[in-house]
Hints:
Layout: E1 6-15, E2 18-28, E3 33-37, H1 44-51, E4 58-63, E5 66-67, H2 73-78, E6 81-84, H3 96-104, H4 110-114, H5 122-131, H6 146-158, E7 164-168, H7 176-189, E8 194-198, H8 202-208, E9 211-216, E10 219-224, H9 226-231, H10 233-243, H11 250-256
Parallel strand pairs: 3-8, 3-9, 6-7, 7-8
Antiparallel strand pairs: 1-2, 1-4, 4-5, 9-10
Helix pairs in contact: 3-5, 3-6, 5-6, 6-7
Amino acid sequence: xxxxxxxxxxxxxxxxxxxxxxxxxxxxxxxxxxxxxxxxxxxxxxxxxxxxxxxxxxxxxxxxxxxxxxxxxxxxxxxxxxxxxxxxxxxxxxxxxxxxxxxxxxxxxxxxxxxxxxxxxxxxxxxxxxxxxxxxxxxxxxxxxxxxxxxxxxxxxxxxxxxxxxxxxxxxxxxxxxxxxxxxxxxxxxxxxxxxxxxxxxxxxxxxxxxxxxxxxxxxxxxxxxxxxxxxxxxxxxxxxxxxxxxxxxxxxxxxx
Length: 257
């Protein structure tokens, strides 16, 4: 496995007296495909926000031997850390190829990037192949299916030579086939990158996670392989046992009350 690992020690994030992340320790090895799971409000997205510099935190977050906390967002991004959000952010009027070209050429002038070129940069060609979007390269991103937009956004990270990908619920709203294709994509990407996935889809996690960290109330509740985490009675009690059940309707809640 290649890529670089992430080491988190005693990470804390507090908002107006509420502790959202409460002393989290994580060791994510190079080339891992780590899933962060847990109920809503467990601190998963806030943890990633802290790693990427979007919220202030205390403790330590080291990547490639260098401390991230205290660095501005753009400096952290330049160190090879990229993330996606729950809603894909692509340039919808531009083609798949142009989106990748812009992501790859953050220092080139906009007209240089937008003009149609005979030679496609090697990194862009590779990202098209990895994401399965080669046949759609000349299609406007706005007409892509939901899953394809997420794959394009992952491709836009790959062409920036990102070493650590932090993905926030990448399969939310996807069909079964799109979820399977996304899982296979993440496996391919993790061959030479470190990948961390915030996820609510337990079936997806069971199928594709190499390792799992369960967060609950801002703390790490359990950690290990999928089998180890699923066998942990604490996890069953606070999360996995309820996750497979449908969300209760207001009427059902009222009835229980």
